[in-house]
């Protein structure tokens, strides 16, 4: 037993050394070209806003943005939000705009649901996430925009989500809950240096977007808040998430691309996404999730320098029959986990359907996924891998992984309908992931995509 413990310690230290020695590899976060300077600036108080936490400022924000549209062909403009508590309902942004929140500036979402207008569901989903039909518009929105910066000196956007969580739990909602920030079909976006608190549903949701940088963001929602996700890249390409800390009730970062036949028809994958230097925590969800709404496809994703603690699941790939689509060409590298119930989960039996019109023969594909240079301490279970009968998950590579398991290591893996390869992994994975064939782990090169 002492020899086994010593061997485990040596392996964990070796993996930790490999993580520390690995610098940032080539990825989209290393190719940033979005300017943030503006030649014109106005302050929200110029439009009658009052930062007392009581006065409703929805019209002030709407009028300010409308006014700043006139500067779009003059280099754009900045809307400055000074220190204060700025209560507001939902408002839209415009192109060539910077929304800047000063330190101790807090934009607060109204708890009056009428201040969150009703909008149609997204075409790749066919309905809201909570209920069939339409949904509430998010607090801050962008539609068909280009060159938008949402930043500050660590200002805060607080959705006051408790009332929405109570409505959800009591089944009192008439429409699906809103998000804090949603950007639809937008290009050249920066979200940085802000704190997002208590979203009714998801905190940051870029969907159908290209060239997006999300940096130095803190996100928090109560651990028991229902299905509150952190950052959800959805049918996006060329996207960077970097230097963020996320603590929410469900999935901290979740990559998606549409739901069943709606996502298949829309056909826009999430691709060329780089996630680096993030700290994730979610006691009731997954720190890093792929799916389960992935019907448009998810591919060419590189995740590195990930710290996960106090979470139910570390890394989760989830889908089900009827999804169609694919999750492929994924690399997750240099990960530290601590106090995680289940390190890895791959499942083909997760998630519901928007309606009964889905095609059960639309089978999703999960293949060419590499997980490497991972160390975990106080892990309950190493991995659960369950593909779909007659549709196995293939080419799964586990490399240089050391997990300190609190349960019996010999029972720490469960595998069915999956195949792959492993090297330098402790505890030893199941035989399905221990192929002796000349299998090569998948690797990524973002250079061509970043230069495109």
Description:
The chain is mainly beta. It has a single domain (29-366), classed as Pectate Lyase C-like (3 Solenoid), CATH 2.160.20. It has helices at residues 2-21, 58-68, 162-169, 260-266, 447-451, and strands at residues 40-43, 52-56, 77-81, 84-88, 91-92, 97-101, 105-109, 118-119, 135-136, 140-143, 146-152, 155-158, 181-184, 187-197, 204-207, 210-220, 237-247, 253-255, 270-281, 286-290, 298-318, 326-347, 365-386, 393-405, 413-416, 418-426. The strands form three sheets. The protein has a 20-stranded parallel sheet that branches. It has a four-stranded parallel sheet with strand order 5-10-13-15. The longest helix is centred in the first third of the chain and has 20 residues, at 2-21. Residues 1-14 have low confidence and may be disordered. Residues 1-18 form the signal peptide. InterPro entries: GH28_Enzymes, Glyco_hydro_28, PbH1, Pectin_lyas_fold, Pectin_lyase_fold/virulence. It holds the Pfam family Glyco_hydro_28. Belongs to the glycosyl hydrolase 28 family. GO terms for molecular function: polygalacturonase activity.
CATH architecture, by name, is 3 Solenoid
Structural class: mainly beta
Q: Which percent bin holds the helix content? A: 10-25%
Instruction: Tally the helices.
Output: 5
Radius of gyration: 22 Å
In CATH, the topology is named Pectate Lyase C-like
The percent range for strand residues is 35-45%
Straight-line distance between termini: 55 Å
Strand tally is 26
The H-level CATH homologous superfamily, spelled out, is Single-stranded right-handed beta-helix, Pectin lyase-like
In the predicted model, the low-confidence regions spanning at least 5 consecutive residues are 1-14
Query: Can you identify the CATH class?
Result: Mainly Beta
Largest sheet: 20 strands, parallel
What count of domains describes the coordinates? 1
Specify the overall morphology. globular
Mean pLDDT across the residues is: 92
